[in-house]
């Protein structure tokens, strides 16, 4: 591909990057995706830790844009494993012949908008400077690993792993004393499997997690056939739910406070037996009314107390915060793992990890000696991957400075001052509060339409209007303030990364968001400026 032959550069080749390449190409655009990893798949390329799998059912956590693809692909389990999802994304890349438009093992370092040529100049780790009219950041909401700067972190003599950058060849923990730092979803999935193999596992917990059982199982062929027979309608139903999945499931229609204690307990029990994130769909007000929310929280705490033998450990594992304000975890044998003789829990909520020494982890003056450390410490979410690129728009303004007090955007898609730059599932869109494949498909299709519209109007660029952006930021804050999502220190708020501004980044409610986007389009792309 020659220097100037691109219409579109896409950064990233996960679900979002792959679909962008496919759609851009099918609309006659010359496109190149640049991906830091040595393969496609994004999240599913990097997160190879033991137990990694999706928590949105596989039949829904998959592309719906191509009927033949969804008919042909056979998912084997209710929640697919990381290798299976990666195989699926490799299949997508091959099936749609996307690889010729993807450059792997190359990190984008800077992107500069040239107002004279009206093109983006993209500098990458392969030394090349590429230019394109449009730049699509498909860099992922959860792709920039968070490695806390604990004193002595780099002095540890043994191997150190991060769940989000797991070695491809796997890790053998047998006869090893292992530390896991963190108790979010990645830890909840990996701890039971690491504990099975390690000589001893010490878990360092800052905040306990709420986890509901996965009840993972092989998919029933008859059920799969029934879904496939009606897949488009089934997918359409999912898009009508706030979270972009489970449209076919029974939803709670009353307040948790409107039923008797016995009835409420029976409803929670049924959801617990079904398993999965739909637990929080039991009642209408679990994410808006603190008292209703605490009924669900108390139910989960009672389950933890019943599963964990040692009362002190059970108490330490029991969260007291709003349930659901951090992403809920979906587990297989997480809590009961703490009944094993070779597992211990160290509470670092009031006394943070003091240091990492060459031989272990120091808390409150005590050294916990280990042979390997696993950082299950998550990600600099939503803004991290973009922040790590030097992005300069009109007049050289940087995205980092523009977002220094927290991200601003119009519809989570564009930022004023950065023409022809699009963020897929950017802050200010439903993104991580939904089935992300649904959010990605909607965004990619909207971006492709915006690019088409630039040509249709014979314009050179499209950009968010400043006032529209200010109004959108206000809207996102308002919607978030009506929920309980801000009731704890979550990565949704940037609270897991020291120094990051505390701003609620995603927008709750997929159908309402989609409806607003449709209205914007119907009103002639209201809030966008075509130059
Ligand atoms: P990613 O898959 O993160 O891909 C982004 C890509 O961009 C990465 O490969 C990265 O290397 C590349 N990149 C970033 N910066 C650069 C750069 N400067 N230069 C070049 N390349 C760059 N969501 C759900 O809805 N359901 C689930 O069940 C679910 N399970 C998850 C499990 C795990 C372990 C994790 C970490 C996340 C999970 N998610 C889930 C969220 C998941 O991230 C999304 O569902 C989805 O995979 C995101 O796709 P993406 O293409 O937007 O981003
Ligand atoms: O990361 P996290 P994750 N000292 O940020 C702790 C998706 N996902 O990789 O809560 C000690 O949730 C931190 O403590 P605290 C999903 O969207 C899905 O697990 O900040 N501890 C927390 O306990 C998920 O939400 C699946 O107080 C420190 C943990 O590390 C998102 O990805 C699987 C610390 C990080 O938890 C991120 O999940 C995996 C420190 N200095 C991921 N710094 C599925 O099941 C951080 N922590 C589908």
**Which term fits the overall shape?**
globular
- SS elements, strand count: 20
Overall structural class, as computed from helix and strand content, comes to alpha/beta
CATH class of the largest domain: Alpha Beta
Q: Write down the domain tally.
A: 2
Strand count, sense and barrel status of the largest sheet are: 8 strands, mixed
Distance between the termini: 28 Å
- The amount of beta strand, in percent, is 15-25%
CATH topology of the largest domain: FAD/NAD(P)-binding domain
Oligomeric state of this protein: single chain
Listed once per kind, the bound small molecules are:
flavin-adenine dinucleotide, 3-acetylpyridine adenine dinucleotide
Provide a count of the helices.
16
Which bin fits the share of residues in helices? 25-40%
The CATH homologous superfamily of the largest domain is named FAD/NAD(P)-binding domain
Unreliable sequence segments: none
């Amino acid at each position: 591909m020659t220097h100037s032959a691109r219409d579109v550069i896409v950064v990233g080749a996960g679900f979002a990057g792959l679909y962008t390449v496919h759609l851009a190409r099918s609309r006659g655009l010359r496109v190149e995706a640049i991906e830091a990893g040595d393969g496609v798949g994004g999240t599913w390329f990097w997160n190879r830790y033991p137990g990694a799998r999706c928590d949105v059912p596989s039949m829904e956590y998959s592309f719906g844009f191509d009927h033949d693809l969804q008919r042909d692909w056979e998912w084997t389990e209710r929640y697919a494993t990381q290798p299976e999802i990666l195989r699926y994304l490799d299949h997508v890349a091959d099936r749609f012949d996307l690889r010729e438009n993807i450059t792997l093992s190359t990190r984008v370092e800077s992107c500069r908008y040239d107002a004279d040529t009206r093109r983006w100049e993209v500098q990458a780790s392969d030394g090349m400077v590429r230019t394109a009219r449009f730049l699509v950041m498909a860099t992922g909401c959860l792709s920039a690993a968070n490695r806390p700067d604990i004193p002595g972190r780099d002095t540890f003599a043994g191997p150190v792993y991060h769940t989000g950058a797991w070695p491809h060849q796997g890790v053998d923990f047998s006869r090893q004393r292992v530390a896991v730092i963190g108790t979010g979803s990645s830890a909840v999935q990996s701890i039971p499997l690491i504990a099975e193999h390690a000589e001893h596992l010490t878990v360092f917990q800052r905040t306990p997690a709420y986890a509901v059982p996965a009840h993972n199982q092989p998919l029933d062929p008859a059920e799969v056939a029934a879904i496939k027979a009606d897949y488009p309608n089934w997918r359409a139903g999912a898009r009508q739910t706030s979270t972009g999945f489970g449209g076919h499931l029974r939803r709670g229609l009353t307040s948790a406070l409107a039923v008797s204690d016995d009835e409420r307990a029976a409803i929670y029990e049924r959801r617990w037996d079904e398993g999965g994130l739909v637990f929080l769909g039991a009642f209408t007000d679990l994410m808006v009314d603190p008292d209703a929310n605490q009924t669900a929280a108390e139910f989960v705490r009672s389950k933890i107390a019943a599963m964990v033998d040692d009362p002190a450990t059970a108490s330490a594992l029991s969260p007291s915060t709003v349930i659901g304000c951090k992403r809920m975890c979906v587990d297989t044998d997480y809590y009961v793992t703490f009944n094993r003789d070779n597992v211990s829990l160290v509470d670092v909520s009031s006394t943070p990890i003091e240091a990492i020494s060459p031989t272990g982890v120091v808390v409150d003056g005590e050294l916990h000696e280990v042979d390997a450390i696993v950082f299950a410490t998550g990600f600099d979410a939503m803004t991290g991957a973009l922040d790590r690129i030097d992005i300069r728009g009109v007049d050289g303004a940087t995205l980092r400075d523009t977002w220094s007090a927290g991200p601003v955007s119009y519809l989570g898609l564009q930022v004023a001052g950065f023409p022809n730059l699009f963020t897929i599932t950017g802050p200010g869109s439903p993104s991580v509060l939904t089935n992300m494949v649904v959010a990605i498909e909607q965004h990619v299709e909207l971006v492709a339409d915006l690019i088409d519209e630039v040509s249709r109007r014979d314009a050179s660029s499209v950009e968010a209007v400043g006032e529209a952006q200010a109004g959108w930021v206000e809207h996102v804050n308002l919607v978030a303030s009506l929920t309980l999502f801000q009731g704890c220190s979550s990565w949704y708020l940037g609270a897991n990364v020291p120094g990051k501004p505390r701003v609620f980044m995603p927008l709750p409610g997929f159908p309402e968001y989609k409806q607003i986007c449709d209205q914007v389009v119907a009103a002639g792309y209201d809030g966008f400026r075509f130059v």
